[in-house]
Amino acid sequence: MLESIRIVLVDTSHPGNIGAVARAMKNMGLKELYLVRPKFFPHADATARAAGADDVLARAVVVESLADALSGCQFVVGTSARQRSLPWPVHNPRECAENIKTMLATGAEKAAVVFGNEQSGLSNDELAQCNTHLHIPVDNDFSSLNLAQAVQVVTYELRMSALENQIVPQSDRQLASAEEMELFYQQLEASLIHLGYLKADRPGRLMLRLRRLFNRIQVEQNEAHILLGILSTIKPISEKSK
User: Fold this and answer.
1) Which member of 22, 39, 67, 115 lies 3.0 to 4.6 Å from 50 by CB, making a disulfide possible if both were Cys?
2) Which of 192, 178, 185, 190 is nearest to 221 (CA)?
3) How many CB atoms lie within 10 A of CB 209?
């Protein structure tokens, strides 16, 4: 289970936090780290704070976008420290760990947990690329939690879930990847604009609501292909570049 989980850090500003996250990951048996636009990496502070988790840092993959970091993932959890104006499914770390285990047992090959910038967290657009949101229920009187602490809490729950029992695959279900779903959302938006249902300059919250709907139901790969086929009859993909 743990080998199928990717930790993603977005816009990390301090290299020491990257090292501390690598140490937290190795403590709990996770090895796959993706870094989206880190301000400083590689860096001596990251190596120093890793405290022996140099192998996790050495394997870390640096990418330019969250979409690149989620390539190959079928289930994505985004962390959020605050409630958003448009409600999404929100779970605590223990619930998320169980959800990830269930998804890996029923068709997903790779899951990701995404953490945002130390000051601002994940943006609404970044959270919209996630299937569900994770919130750590800290005390309201002192809710400050640094990045490495948050990763440690989440990876601990992932490890405890993994230790309970091994994943037993229940079917050959193959879920759509993050990039397949992103292509679907792009074509869906283009088709709705083409039909006049959505205004290009004022999309409002409709696309966010549709993302929430499809992320919640976990579209299978063949279902994503069917949906894209339907959309191509409304607005062929070749028209997008015209």
Assistant:
1) 22
2) 178
3) 10
